[in-house]
Amino acid sequence: MILHAGDVGGPKILEKLRTIAPVAAIRGNVDTGAWADALPLTEVVETGAATIYMLHILKDLYVNPGIAGFAIVVSGHTHQPLQFEKDGVLYVNPGSAGPRRFQLPVTVGRLDLRAKPWGVEFIEMDVKG
């Protein structure tokens, strides 16, 4: 499954991703227009191993994820790959697989939920520019 934490960039991106795997996507602050209005601001993804809460901007998290039953929080916005744990909840920002921003690496994140502790791998994409 592909989780997209916002700043999609256009509907064709989601169409292409859906040819690879099922997609859960949320709207980012640069996603505008009718196509983007159809994207939720947050999403809850149930897997066999964990319940994942997705939102674009982590500072907009107004629920206690642990109390709400979320084991993982996936966010975007900063385009910077990040992983940390707080109060038993895993927080992940996969970075950005789109155009390079702010001299940051172009990355995707891979969550391995087969066994605890869950693994997060950041994969740097080979792009020019």
Which helices and strands appear, and what pairs or packs with what?
Layout: E1 2-4, H1 11-18, E2 23-25, H2 34-37, E3 42-46, E4 51-55, H3 65-68, E5 72-74, E6 82-86, E7 89-93, E8 107-112, E9 119-124
Parallel strand pairs: 1-2, 4-5, 5-7
Antiparallel strand pairs: 3-4, 6-7, 8-9
Summarize this structure briefly.
The protein is mostly beta strands and 129 residues long. The chain has one domain (2-124): Metallo-dependent phosphatases (Purple Acid Phosphatase, chain A, domain 2, 4-Layer Sandwich). The chain has helices spanning 11-18, 34-37, 65-68, and strands spanning 2-4, 23-25, 42-46, 51-55, 72-74, 82-86, 89-93, 107-112, 119-124.
Give the helices and strands as they follow along the chain. EHEHEEHEEEEE
Radius of gyration, in angstroms, nearest whole number: 14 Å
> How large is the count of helical segments?
3
Q: How big a fraction of the residues is strand?
A: 25-35%
What is the number of domains?
1
Helix content: 10-25%
Give the strand order of the largest sheet, numbering strands 1, 2, ... along the chain: 3-4-5-7-6
CATH C-level label = Alpha Beta
Q: Give the CATH architecture.
A: 4-Layer Sandwich
Structural class: mainly beta
